[in-house]
Amino acid sequence: MRMSAKLPWYHAGLRFGCLGCGNCCTGEPGYVWVVQSEINRLAELLSLDVTQFESMFVRYVGRRKSLIELPNGDCVFLERPSMRCKVYQARPQQCRTWPFWSSNLRSPADWAATAQRCPGTDRGRLYSLSEISAALAQDR
Ligand code: SF4
């Protein structure tokens, strides 16, 4: 008899459709991890030298790099009052894979907690298990 791998609780897929509210770009302190290729892309989008970009928008957290945030918890690239991302085309991988992060998918309760913060959760397009797994594989 073949052993079948245990499927995750979200094996039938999950819905998500961003409403553009900006909640995920503000709030409690957090990190937007960036690697060098992402920094380079962001600097290029803003027509800045990479060194200049890093001195203005990047901080070290141990050996890793994160975008800075404002004292009110806003991502440095969140534009108010439109709540748009100023660097949307070049946003880092972490922003692209929201809300399919391992911390949000540990259990249905964690997903429900995500939905409290992100009104785009559980509505919109159905993402398949393989799409969710691909997002999770990029988790940092
Ligand atoms: S919190 Fe959700 S709905 Fe609001 S901007 Fe972020 S991803 Fe979109």
Q: Which geometry do the CA atoms define? A: globular
Strand segment tally: 6
Structural class: alpha+beta
Residue fraction in strands: 5-15%
Question: How far is it from the N-terminal to the C-terminal residue, by CA?
Answer: 37 Å
Helix count, per DSSP? 6
Q: Which value, in Å, is the CA radius of gyration? A: 17 Å
Q: How many structural domains in the coordinates?
A: 1
| Sheet having the most strands | 2 strands, antiparallel
Which ligands, by name, code or SMILES, are bound?
Answer: iron/sulfur cluster
Unreliable sequence segments: none
Helix content: 25-40%
Structure commentary:
The protein is α+β, with helices and mostly antiparallel strands and 140 residues long. Helices cover 32% and strands 13% of the residues. The chain has helices spanning 36-45, 50-57, 93-97, 102-105, 108-117, 129-136; strands spanning 14-16, 58-61, 64-67, 78-79, 84-85, 125-127. Strand 2 and strand 3 form a beta hairpin. Helix 1 (36-45) crosses helix 2 (50-57). The protein is globular and about 45 Å long. The structure holds iron/sulfur cluster. Iron/sulfur cluster binds at residues 18-24, 98, 118-120.
What does this entry show, briefly?
The chain is of the alpha+beta class. It is built from 6 helices and 6 strands; from the N terminus they run E-H-H-E-E-E-E-H-H-H-E-H. The termini are far apart.
What keywords describe this structure?
single chain, 140 residues, alpha+beta, two-stranded antiparallel ribbon, 6 strands, 13% strand, binds iron/sulfur cluster
Give the SSE map:
Layout: E1 14-16, H1 36-45, H2 50-57, E2 58-61, E3 64-67, E4 78-79, E5 84-85, H3 93-97, H4 102-105, H5 108-117, E6 125-127, H6 129-136
Antiparallel strand pairs: 1-6, 2-3, 4-5
Helix pairs in contact: 1-2
